[in-house]
Specification:
The complex is a heterodimer of chains A (224) and B (233). Chain A is mainly α. Chain A is 71% helix and 0% strand. Classes of the chains: A mainly alpha (224), B alpha/beta (233). The structure holds guanosine-5'-triphosphate and magnesium ion (MG). Chain A: InterPro entries: UreF, UreF_sf.
Chain lengths: 224, 233
Amino acid sequence: MSRATLLVLADGRFPAGGHAHSGGAEAAVAAGRVTGAADLAEFCRGRLHTSGLVAAALAAAAALGTDPLQLDEAADARTPSAALRTAARKLGRQMMRAARATWPSAELDALASARPRGAHQPVVLGLAARSAGLGPEDAAYVAAYESVSGPATAVVRLLSLDPFDATAVLARLAPDLDRVAADAAECARRVPEEGVDALPASSAPLLDIGAEAHAAWAVRLFAS
Amino acid sequence: MHLDHSHASDGPAALSADAVRPDGRRRALRIGLGGPVGSGKTATVAALCRALRDELSLAVVTNDIYTREDAAFLLREAVLPPERIMAVETGACPHTAIRDDISANLEAVEDLETVFAHEGVGPLDLVLVESGGDNLTATFSRGLVDAQLFVIDVAGGDDIPRKGGPGVTTADLLVVNKTDLAPYVGSDLQRMARDAKEQRAELPVVFQSLRSPAGVSEVAAWVRERHAAWTAA
Ligand SMILES: Nc1nc2c(ncn2[C@@H]2O[C@H](COP(=O)(O)OP(=O)(O)OP(=O)(O)O)[C@@H](O)[C@H]2O)c(=O)[nH]1
Ligand SMILES: [Mg+2]
């Protein structure tokens, strides 16, 4: 694997639509659950170990070559909130466009044709990593990191939080990120034997509830 | 026929601003409207729709920052049927959505094109993309639009053309709107014209008031020319 390629895919400026999403942070801020850097750290830790882990495992499995359509169904089953399923497919479609432009492959084209409205973002991300010559750990790292970097950036905008504090939150999460990425890749390796049920299905009900409420707001800064 | 395009008709969607759609047809002309908050972008879009809708098949993509007001305004004014208006959410960064990460806007534009390609009413000729009101550096990526208008107004200060910035200097058409307000805010239109000329050399500038009888007609004529050139290419 090329470490430089990993940096390109993991770059927050990779043009795949993430900037318009807060990863649940906007809803959490409005509900008063995130008011500063300390809350942000807890919010990110919770998200990382629940939906972050699931996303990382899906991405790792896709990077290993698991059938992306089967993974897409597995992602649906692991996303109880309709609003989050919609957001994940929207982001998946955007990731697909960027991936096909940067690391074109027949596998990406096939998934784009099979899911023209978008597959779940972590699945597309994993397949993008595969097309870029990256491995399951790499894909898991990118998905896990995105699950916390998105909310951290959003909270800087939503609360005018000091950007240095927000970045320090992410830096302190590094050991957790390492663990989640390793666990995710390990689960993904069991899929050929055990099927997609080997993938984690942890969830954060408050993120799901917040996402449903947020989708109905008339005025909001972020799409999710 | 464009031989340099290899998309099969049933292949996956286009990547960027490819001039030919996956089905092999030349796509609609895409024109972006950017400019500071409140300068008259939505009003110009509405006026353009009224001026052009009988001759061109039109659609509009709006990029509201935290509401759906622009789309709602266009719907309320009934300048186009609702299925021709689509709103994109931009996550507090309107310039990102038109320049650095254009995927959401591309998808909106392509979805509109696809719907009309399939609905029997005939394909779209023109898609207008309105950016959320932003600052003087916000410009559209060439990957998203074929041409862009930058709309400023006389009430925002008559020194804006002098200050320049990418929008003022590089837009394919600079529109200085609300000339009817110049006497009330003490803006010197001649000076604005001089400064704009200096910043833009040969690129065109239109001064307009949407409250005057001439309204959007000069801008509409420019759009017509662009469209003629696009279809002839
Ligand atoms: N007097 C005058 N008012 C105008 C003119 N054009 C637009 N307006 C008014 O200016 C206000 C703002 O116009 P919009 O078209 O909403 O401006 P916008 O650039 O779309 O604004 P944002 O999308 O919020 O950035 C509205 O009240 C319009 O009616 C004009 O030529 N003269
Ligand atoms: Mg507007």
